[in-house]
Hints:
Elements: E1 4-11, H1 21-29, E2 30-39, H2 41-49, H3 56-74, E3 80-83, H4 87-100
Parallel strand pairs: 1-2, 2-3
Amino acid sequence: MPTFDTSLVWFRRDLRNFDHAALYHALKSSRRVFCAFIFDRAILQPLLESGLQADRRVEFIHASLRELDAALRAMGGGLIVRYDAARKRTLQRYAAVKKAA
């Protein structure tokens, strides 16, 4: 029986669905697991202001997130992607789901 009703795995640097300790433990100990990635505007904004249309690092992150989302969907889930301005709302929504469950 799961220890927790709901857990949130916040992907930051490790964008894999395999060999990911936090995801493993969340899936092992929770009935429902939400997975999220939040872009940091403090990192993205200077890239945009410098006039770079497509920075290779951002392209790599986008591609990795698409792969992660596809892998999570194959497992019956998906990935929540937001920007840091929405971080508080995302976490509040997660907390509201947790309370309602």
